[in-house]
Amino acid sequence: MGFKWPDNWEEKPLLEKVDGDMAFFADGTSKHIDAIILCTGYLHHFPFLPESLCLKTDNRLWPLDLYKGVAWESNPKLFYLGMQDQWYTFNMFDAQAWYVRDLIMEPH
Q: Do 34 and 67 share a domain, yes or no?
């Protein structure tokens, strides 16, 4: 990510596993850790979905092709939660989950 972190923080590549206080990374390195603060990068990747159902957009505040940020316009019975950039992340996830619940339970 390239940010200037405090001296006792370090960016590492993809986290593969954690064993006790030891973290193991995709580049073959390992490190004793106290905490993991950010490890996903929030990259959109859907290896479990057929290509025809995959959302194709960059990580952004308002993803393209998502009505109200959750309902996929190409298939409005498919919802994507958490596709926005990392602003108010967990509060946004809760609000999206409630909205999608209402769409499913009370279709118009």
A: no
Please report, rounded to a whole number, the percentage of residues in the chain having pLDDT higher than 90: 14
Three-state DSSP state, 95: helix
Residue among 104, 58, 105, 63 nearest 80 (CA):
63
pLDDT digits (tens, 9 = 90+) for 59-71: 666 777 888 888 8
The Cα–Cα gap between 69 and 23 comes to 34
Q: How many domains does the chain have?
A: 2
Does residue 6 register a pLDDT over 90? no
Closest among 41, 46, 54 to 85, alpha carbons compared: 41
Residue 5 has φ and ψ, to the nearest 5°, of -85, 165
**For residues 15, 18, 22 and 23, what is the CA-based torsion angle, rounded to 10 degrees?**
0
Collapsing DSSP to helix, strand or coil, 25 comes out as strand
